[in-house]
Model the fold of this input.
Amino acid sequence: MNQLNHAELINLFLSLGTLLLTARLAGEFFRQLKMPLVVGELIAGICLGPSLLGSFYPDITNLIIPATGNIKIAFEAINQLALILLLFVAGLEVELVLIRQQGKTVFYTSLLSFIIPLLIGYGVAFYYPEWFNFKPDDKRVFTLFYRDWE
Done:
């Protein structure tokens, strides 16, 4: 595996610092609005990522979120670790006593929040496969197992 050179390491730390600072500021802003801190942090990530800023200013997004080279590999590894830690912390904050008390409601909410998006996604892929630039031979196989491999 290649090591990051000095310039790549500095770029990595500047990128991480920019993301962390923006996430913190957005999180604090949303806290002032009486919303969870994590909502602001997630919205900051969406705004700085390819979804929003990358659509209008891809060069700026490439400065913040590296798109090539060794720095991209290191950045993706850090992102995966951060995602695992986010899910771990979210799991630690779950109050099992409340879930046991609200058992039936929690079960139906969880079930429906899984089934409804699944059915909508299946329906869209089944009836509009051209949206995915794909002309399948068997629509059922396509809708269940399609993955964008690019």
Notes: The chain has a mean pLDDT of 84.
